Amino acid sequence: MTIEFIPEGVCSKYMSVSVDGGIITSLDSFGGCNGNLKALSALLPGMKAEDAVKKLEGIECGARGTSCPDQLSKALRGMIEAEHASEKSDTKSKK
Q: pTM here?
């Protein structure tokens, strides 16, 4: 599954993260702090999406109250919650 989104309150203008079987496979971004986003793109592939959320959520950039990593964690959390809701729905319909 690939999530494409526009982060809010940060310099990055666009992010796309791909997840397969709960594991992040790639991260692409446009805008933002070049070095930091390159680091995220290098470090996150191979990591469980749930682990990335735990590590990234709440990170702030200056006085913004959020950051590119925090925005990414929110998108990943939304994807995880949607998958869990879908799994519960599938389980109920099979009963």
A: 0.87
| Interstrand relation of 23-31 and 2-5 (parallel, antiparallel or unpaired) | unpaired
Q: What's the number of CA atoms in the CB half-sphere (13 Å) around residue 43?
A: 11
**Beta carbons within 8 Å of 76's beta carbon, 6+ residues apart:** 3, 17, 19, 24, 49, 52, 53, 56
Q: Please give the domain boundaries of the chain with CATH numbers for all domains.
A: 2-94 (3.30.390)
User: Which residue in 28, 40, 38, 29 sits closest to 69, CA to CA?
Assistant: 40
> Average per-residue pLDDT in the chain?
92
- Asked if pLDDT for residue 94 goes beyond 80, the answer is no
